[in-house]
Amino acid sequence: MALRGSPRAPKGPGPTARAPSPGAPPPPPPPRSRPLLLLLLLLAACGAVGRSPEPGRLGPRARLSRAPPNPPAGRALPGGGEDRQARDEEPGTPGPGQAPGPGEDGAPAAGQGRWARAAPMAGAASRAQVSLVSTSFVLKGDATHNQAMVHWTGENSSVILILTKYYHADMGKVLESSLWRSSDFGTSYTKLTLQPGATTVIDNFYICPTNKRKIILVSSSLSDRDQSLFLSADEGATFQKQLVPFSVETLIFHPREEDKVLAYTKEGKLFVSSDLGRKWTLLRERVTKDHVFWAVSGVDADPDLVHLEAQDLGGGFRYVTCQIHNCSDNTRTTPFAGPVDHGSLTVQDDYVFVKATTTNQTKYYISYRRNEFVLMKLPKYALPKDLQVISTDESQVFVAVQEWYQTDTYNLYQSDTRGVRYSLVLEDVRSSRQAEESVVIDILEVRGVKGVFLANQKVNGKVVTLITYNKGRDWDRLRPPSTDMNGKPTNCKPPDCHLHLHLRWADNPYVSGTVHTKDSAPGLIMGAGNLGSQLVEYKEEMYITSDCGHTWRQVFEEEHHILYLDHGGVIVAIKDTSIPLKILKFSVDEGLTWSTHNFTSTSVFVDGLLSEPGDETLVMTVFGHISFRSDWELVKVDFRPWFSRQCGEDDYSSWDLANLQGDRCVMGQQRSFRRRKPASWCVTGRSFTAALKARVCPCRASDFLCDYGFERAPSSESDANKCFANFWFNPLSPPDDCVLGQTYTSSLGYRKLVSNVCEGGVDPRQRPVRLQCPLLPPRGLQVSIRGEAVAVRPGEDVLFVVRQEQGDILTTKYQVDLGDGFKAMYVNLTLTGEPIRHRYESPGVYRVSVRAENMAGHDEAVLFVQVNSPLQALYLEVVPVIGVNQEVNLTAVLLPLNPNLTVFYWWIGHSLQPRLSLENSVTTRFGDPGDVRVTVQAACGTSVLQDSKVVRVLDQFQVMPLQFSKDLDAHNPNTPEWRGDIGLVVSRLLSKETSIPEELMVTVVKPGLPTLADLHVLLPPPRPTRKRSLTSDKRLTAIQQVLNAQKISFLLRGGVRVVVAVRDVGTDSPSLGGGGGYWAVAILFVSGLFAVGAFILYKFKRKRPGRTVYAQMHNEKEQEMTSPVSHSQGVQSAIQGNHSGVVLSVSSREMHSYLVS
């Protein structure tokens, strides 16, 4: 989509940053602004510039959108003024019939031959006497439409379909559309009416890849309630309407059978039709978008098989296969046993890829020709963060891996035939992140010649371009041309200066991108780049090679969009610019000379180029618009008048493929290609085959790659071609899948390139001896809970999964102990993959162990499982007033108790770093006066609770011990809320009797029995005229008097009166400045009550049938209850008692009884 919007930003920092290469002409003008191109061209087997999509995807068409660009200076003036040059001519270009002048558009002066027409060929008309034929057609009435999709059916057809539409971005839908059809190669178009008398909105259209006469249009109503399809079997001459009960997101044609279509809906459902969309059947719900694949011919036995990634009921994602005629739950299969990462399924040629992440570790798996999935073996310490599949052709996988230490680069790896073992071929290939987190890696496969790749390597901040002719075994820098396009020396000589190319795909696949190659034109490469020591982002000079990168020539000083016609016999170039154009350049001699053609009388903003699929004809179309509010304009350019006959054998010359060292044996063979002679004015045609002959070469050391676990010696050493084993790899060890009774071959460090066809000669593998697989001891034994949890609830089903990475599994026995008395012996446990189902009834920590043993050795795996009930209540017990630097105890009262299973997090003040403890209490000190907030969190499994209190820290205050009538103990439930209410009523009564403000008295009732309390008497606000002595404060005397007179009392339920009095603690005066000692004793006391409560709970539960208290097993004996602490024992011994072996089963009601006892 070409947006009619603001021009895109310049590619570099500005003209001052552009340093010319040595000997180059002066730098060009400042980088131009270019329009933002966001074209979504969807092509299948089409000749439009850009990469073709996968078989079965969208047909060969382009989708464009446009937004208003910033007008050039003087373009739109108030009062109707208009810049004539911007409107009618490209600046610096000649008018119709004029020859380019010197310096115009980078052309040399007349007579230098760069833009001059070639001399006439003997027996043929002069090229100067032959003119190109261009016809323009304007799609009237579509000025408001901001997107267009174009399809050229090809295969001897003259039909072109164009869908223009107005897409409302805010509403996210198409509001208007028009469908146009041409049957004369684009000379004229007819607007189609699908439903006479009714408005039809077309969202999209799809072309069958095996029969391009069959077309499906997707239509929707403005209300989003109804959606219909329009079906055609005659290239859009007629359509049949078909209502559908779902909203189509995308359609996927079968790659072989023309009437079978998959429909992915906006709700994530997948439907299938076997009659070109007339009837639909639901296959599966909750399917992942863009991860649905038809069966691959020659690999999948059933052509009606569908591979898909779908979400299961538990929320995980699975790789599922099913037949389109029977896809029920009973017939679906899951080739990969476990869950896969969302969006990781890829089915490509012979291979299926999935990714699975467990315990924060990601592993990549591969299936070769639908066999069992195995782990992709990268070097042991590659530790990949990301993996991208580059290619899977020629029975080999080429992947880019971002390793643990890389941020903006990837390493390239090449696999064996099965795609399992990978060897490093190139390090530090540049990468970048695009929209929606997609990754773009700077590597490009040169089409037309197998095994040739271009890559941009980034080392020490510098980016350089490399080329390989043997699929990554060897890489070289590109040779620079000796002269520039004007014939002047470049002064660019290796090793300090090379040619570097930008390897970017265009955002709009309707244009060529920065490097252009085609299968129909082997050896012909055009790219944008620069000469120098590294790639410069804002320099985009155009270079061309016709011998697959061996020699290069400069052709333009600025980037151009490229289109190949007639197998590269005609090369068309249009400048990549944000200003309107009306000329194109073309060459009929592989870029040696260039001519210009005014394809329109009025300059247009060019949105893209299109030719018939396959680039085998001489007719092309230029798409564009005159202004933002103008109609779409299509210009047909016909090169057929230039060529009056078909080529014969005498019109071709041959060229030999060679690498940059001049070696013609590439990938084990000498290959020759043919191309049309520059002086031959003829059409090669559809039947032309570029490959001429091939001869097999004898094998050499360069035909072999280092095997998995080996690396090549540095190039600086004398034995640079030798492979040495990595420190972590033992070449003599048998492979992991080696089974007793079978044989294996120990690698000597070399393996032949998969697609290399050399024979005889040198073989560094030296006929390795086949060895018998030994009995291997079990290694890498693992036990886990399905779902990767280690904390479960009582009564919950737990599925234990046992895995073994290495060693024999057929003769291995597995002894399993689940920690609660369950023990069993298994065979073939890791072979079947079936989990062990178990259920723990009581809370606790259980040690699960698995011991695998055979005659060669043993291995053991251990897992600790936490079984706990969800936390129900948490209360923070803390004295509300404390002195500066006095020790204070913070206690978290938890329900249920869950001993040894709960972690406590303590936040004190404004600190973000918590203190952690396994005990429910901690001690601390506060160094500064003021209010301090204390927060505690209790975490047990997945259950987390929190409570918070504010502590007042003072320099001075007094504490008066209090006691209550014994009748209060019988009504004490020992809960925090009850103690708080008692303290409030005492402070309120004292304030009433003594006239002391209530906010200066804080009564804290202590936990446990007997019921005791401390009265904290705070200092009043300071007065500047008088100093108060705390010990002689008359307030204390007044408090003592009312207490001694028994004036402080309150009533309980049943009329019971409770009297508050001063407690005798062995001193005649109240404590000064704190009370921390009393509080510490109280905490010890309540801790003792916890132990006493445990004993009472034990005694109580023994009297109730059906209730059981469990303990850990000791020395394989039956479970017993350890002796609880008796009432006669001291408080300190109760706290220090060893309870680590006790696992209590405590219910909420029992915990409540435990607290109040």
Automatic annotation (TrEMBL):
SUPFAM superfamilies: Oligoxyloglucan reducing end-specific cellobiohydrolase, PKD domain. Residues 22-33 have a biased composition (Pro residues). Keywords: Cell membrane, Cell projection, Cytoplasmic vesicle, Disulfide bond, Endosome, Glycoprotein, Membrane, Postsynaptic cell membrane, Repeat, Signal, Synapse, Synaptosome, Transmembrane, Transmembrane helix. It is found in: Cell membrane; Cell projection, Dendrite; Cell projection, Dendritic spine; Cytoplasmic vesicle membrane. GO terms for cellular component: cytosol; dendritic spine; early endosome membrane; perikaryon; postsynaptic density membrane; recycling endosome membrane. Residues 1-50 form the signal peptide. It comes from the Eukaryota. PROSITE patterns: PKD. This is VPS10 domain-containing receptor SorCS2. Its main location: membrane. Residues 1-35, 49-120 are annotated as: Disordered. The chain crosses the membrane at residues 1077-1098. Residues 81-90 have a biased composition (Basic and acidic residues). Residues 105-120 have a biased composition (Low complexity).
